[in-house]
Amino acid sequence: MKLSNITLRDLPETIKRPEYDRSVLTPGIVHIGLGNFHRAHQSWYLHRLMQMGLAQDWAIVGAGVRPYDEEMRQKFVAQDYLTTLIELDPAGSSAEVVGAMIDYVPVEDGNGALIERMAQPDIRIVALTVTEGGYYIDPATKGFDATHPDIVHDAENPWRPRTAFGAMVAALKLRRDRGVGPFTGQSCDNLQGNGAVLRQTVVSLARLSDPDLADWINAKCSFPNAMVDCIVPATGPQELELAKSFGIEDAVPVTHENFRQWVIEDAFCAGRPDWDKAGAVFSKDVHSYETMKIRILNGGHQVIAPVGELLSVVTISGCMEHPLIGQLFEKVEREEIMPHVAPVPEFTPQTYVALIKKRFSNPKIVDTTRRVAFDGSSRQPGFIVPSIRACLARGIAPEGLALTSALWARYCLGTREDGSEIAPNDPFWSDLRALAAQAKDEPKVWLSMRHIYGDLGEDVRFAAAFERWLTTICREGVEAALRSYLT
C-alpha cells in the first residue's frame, strides 16, 4: 500500500501510525538535512509528543541546500511527508509511521525559498544534520575556515548563498530588519560542543559581510549543545523491501536500532517543545554525555570499521563476531578509552561499554563498515585522537589506539588484504592514499598531518608505537598485527 495521508487508516493493524490530526499541525522548526538519522531521532521525539496531544505547533518543515536534496523532496511530497520507521530488534522487528514533518521547502539555486521560510515568525528553531565535516572548520586550528570556496561565495553573495549557514545568516538579517526576532540554531550532529561549533560558523560567516548583524546574532540567538545517539543504517533495496514486507510502499523508509538518547542544553531563545516528556534529557552537563558517547561509541566505531573493511567484513555486527576484531574492540575500550571517561547519571563507563557492545552486535542492524569508516579525516581526529591524548596525559601507553591509527593508515592505501580495491571513502581520499603509500616505508610521514594529529607525531610514546604497528601491518599483515596486540 502506497504511503499517504489517505492510506494511513488502511495500514495493517500491527503498524503504529499518527493518532493526531496532521491537518491541524502548524510549523515551528525548519530542519536542514533530512537524512535517515534525523527522521529516526529528532523527528521521532517530536512525533511522540504529538501522539500525547502536545507540540502541535512545532511541526517540521524539511529543507536542503544541495541539488540532490530536490530528489528527496519529491519523494516526500508524493507521500505527504510521512516516513516509516522500522525498529530492528533481535527479539523482533516492528514498524511505525511518523508524521511530524508537514512540508519541505523547494530546493533552488540561491536558496531564496529557504531564506524566506526561515524568516517567517512561526519558525522558532532551525535545526541541522549536515555531518561532522560540514561546519567549515579549519582542520589545523579548529576555528572557522573563512577560505573555503563555499564560504567565500556566501560572504560575497549573502542573498544567494550556497550553504545552510549562509541561508541562516540571510534569514536572520530579514528577521532582525522586520522585527521578528531571533531563532534558535540547533545542531544535531556528532560534534563535541556542536552548538558552540554552529554558533562559530554562523556568526563568523555573518561577520565577513555584516559585522553588525554578526553581533546581533551572537547576542540574540541561542545555540544549545546536544548529544544525539541512535544507530541508523543507510537505506537501500533491502530496506525498501523490508518496508514492503510490512505492507507499506515507502520510497524513504528508515531502519534503526531499539535505542535512542538525546541530551540537550536548555538554551532556546524562542521557545521549544517539551522533548523531555518523550524521553530526551535536558542537562547543564551535556559535555560529559558527549564525551562518553563520542569516545566510547563513535571511537569504538572507528576502532573496528577500517579493520573490518581491510578483512572484508561487511557489517559492524560482523566485526563484533569476528574473533580478532571483536577482541580488539573490547581491549582498546577497556584499557585505553573507558578509563578516561567520567560517569553520567544514567551510565558508568563500564555499563556504557557493555551497552555499546550489545548494540554493535545486533545482527538485525545491517550497518556497513564502509558507511562507518567514511570520512576518517574528520572522524579519527574527532573520535580517536582525544583518547590518545587522554592516555598520554595519564602516562598510559596508547598501544591499541596507535594500532587503530595504523590500521586506518593501511585502510587509506585503498586495498583490502585480499587485494580487492576499496572505493574512495573520504573527501580527501586521493591525498590520504598518496600519503599512505609513502608511509609504508616512512611511517612517521602519516603523523605529519597536523590537522589530524596535531603534535602527536612529536610524542615518542605514541609515534614509536604507531610506526611499529604500521610496519608490522605492512610486512606481516593485518591479522598478524591484531594477534600480536591481543596476546
Automatic annotation (TrEMBL):
Q: Which UniProt keywords apply?
A: Oxidoreductase
**UniProt feature coiled coil, ranges:** none
Q: Which GO terms describe its molecular function?
A: oxidoreductase activity, acting on the CH-OH group of donors, NAD or NADP as acceptor
| InterPro entries in the record | 6-PGluconate_DH-like_C_sf (IPR008927), 6PGD_dom2 (IPR013328), Mannitol_DH (IPR000669), Mannitol_DH/Oxidoreductase (IPR050988), Mannitol_DH_C (IPR013118), Mannitol_DH_N (IPR013131), NAD(P)-bd_dom_sf (IPR036291)
Q: How is this protein named in the record?
A: Mannitol dehydrogenase
Residue span(s) of domain Mannitol dehydrogenase N-terminal: 28-277
Q: Which organism is it from?
A: Celeribacter ethanolicus
Query: What positions does the domain Mannitol dehydrogenase C-terminal occupy?
Result: 285-473
**Could you list the residue ranges that cross the membrane?**
none
Q: Name one Pfam family in it.
A: Mannitol_dh_C
